[in-house]
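thread: overnight batch results

M.L. [08:02]
morning all. the overnight job finished for the chain we discussed friday. pasting input first so we're all looking at the same thing
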Amino acid sequence: MSSDGIYEMRVMARADLDRTLDWAASEGWNPGFDDARAFQAADPLGFFMGWREGEAVAAISVVAYDASFAFLGLYLVRPEYRGRGFGLALWRHALARRPAKLIGLDGVVDQQANYARSGFRLAYRNIRFGGPAPLAPGGARTADLKPARTVAFDRLAAYDRRCFPAPRAAFLSLWLSPLAGAAIAAERGGEVCGLGAIRACQKGYKIGPLFADDAAVAEQIFLALAARARGETLYLDVPEPNVPALRLAERYGLAPVFETARMYTGDAPAIDLARVFGVTTFELG
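M.L. [08:03]
and the structure it wrote out:
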């Protein structure tokens, strides 16, 4: 750590990541209480912090899932240090050290122009829906639901891979074992046909991912997870192109509260977006 005015940028320790999530909470991003554990497992070298005269001033993550795909998030600069180039320097530093053929991000809409100048192109919007969690079970039973931990992990990872651009076993194994939440798998005809998780956050609960073969399975998983929130505020991040997912959120009284611009440095990856009823997390994709 430098005290002579030099701006130092380095990989985060776990305490630094915890600090970054505290910053995110103060910005209203509402992280989950247990997010750091799974985030760091995804790519221990993918989280960076900038220090100015012994003070942590900026953060960013570029999580490289493999050589073909990475995801940028947690881009934060403390308010009193904004406009002085600390964030941009850290941005360039992180991208240089975690290169990938394709990089994605979920950025605030009013920063799209800045991201475009760095080579990112808009793919679609993600819309965060929020509202009181539905209490009634509802929905038709079209699949068998069971705790995700009772299904062979390789089967869950294979299903996840249909909905995400790269393998992410280290992250997924922890994300589907939340310390304050639950994860559910759906099966039909002996095959996995859906996957979802809910986690406790600074405010209420978030469901993510919510992946399913069709809207009926998505609804069944959604309602089973929502029951865990016991009527508290519930959030679901929905890709706008998935119209049945938008209708699901609206049908159960959730309303748009926030949106992001999903952007990539190249063509959007070939994932089955029709199965993505809820994004896993804006920070890591």
